Amino acid sequence: MGSSKKNKFKQVFAPTPSPTTNTINNTINNDPNDDDLVDDLLTALDSRDAAVHRESATVLEEIQTKQPAARAAAPDKAGSKSRFRARQGRKAAARAEQQAPIDTDADAKLEREAKDEERAINRICNELGLEMHEINPDGHCLFSAVADQLATLNVVLPQQAHYTLARRAAAEYMLAHPQDFVPFLPSVEGEDGAGAGDSGIIGPREYARYCASIRDTAVWGGEPEILALSRAYAIPIHVVQSGQPPVVVHDPSCAPRTDNLKEQRAVRISYHRRMYGLGEHYNSLRPKTGLQKITSPLKNLLAPT
């Protein structure tokens, strides 16, 4: 990795500033259901900085401790939304606590895995005539990557290429087509939780809250949201990854399989498990400029979903 690339790599991994202690204490004491603070703390868990993880987990736990007392002292203004955010906060805090302490050996292993992943993705990108455009790892990366692609393809105007637009489109499509997503979403409260459907799948009210969280918060997006975005914008989404298959295709029209991935008009993003240290990440894949066409067929690269 060249020196310029190393510097860029370090900038991407720079710790995310966390809320100040005074701000945190004031928020916890005055409004332990503050959504903005919880969003900031969830976003901070994307950082590779162990101190940021510990601080975020501690504050999230303290918020959870304060919430029952706050609800007893005053009416719950947010109702079901605050309860949903509380569950999200508990999950985030538990995830942060489970992270293994960062040490030299672990860092070295992580760096090797990240380089192997980067090489594998770059190989596929070269075959497809693509180059990686890095997206900020802030919890909105999937939606930012798709928005960048939509602008590149002239589907939306450049000034509209923002994660808020993509989040809204995914949430609205999912809310309007619950039959396409509910069977694949487990209830956050478990199969015995209030409102859970058959076999522990998400219930109608919880599903509505789930869609609202996709629209309004920094909760991560995944396969359901990729499918929703593909259908909302009526365009295939190709996800390049280091695993098998190298390219996963989400096609809104359920079109027959094709090997002509390079020529197909599609949103193209990359999926990273290791490149950014903790959690999943997506980048946008833009066409290389002035690149000659590759004549070799790109078979065995796609897996339609």
From TrEMBL:
Give the protein name, as stated in the record: OTU domain-containing protein
| GO BP of this protein | protein deubiquitination
Q: Which SUPFAM superfamilies match?
A: Cysteine proteinases (SSF54001)
Source organism of the structure: Russula ochroleuca
Could you tell me which residue ranges the OTU domain spans?
Answer: 130-288
InterPro entries given in the database record = OTU_dom, Papain-like_cys_pep_sf, Peptidase_C85-like
Q: Where is the composition biased (Basic residues)?
A: 80-93
CDD domains given for it?
A: OTU_OTUD6-like (cd22748)
Bias (Low complexity): 19-31
Q: Where is this region: Disordered?
A: 1-33, 64-106
Recorded GO MF terms: cysteine-type deubiquitinase activity
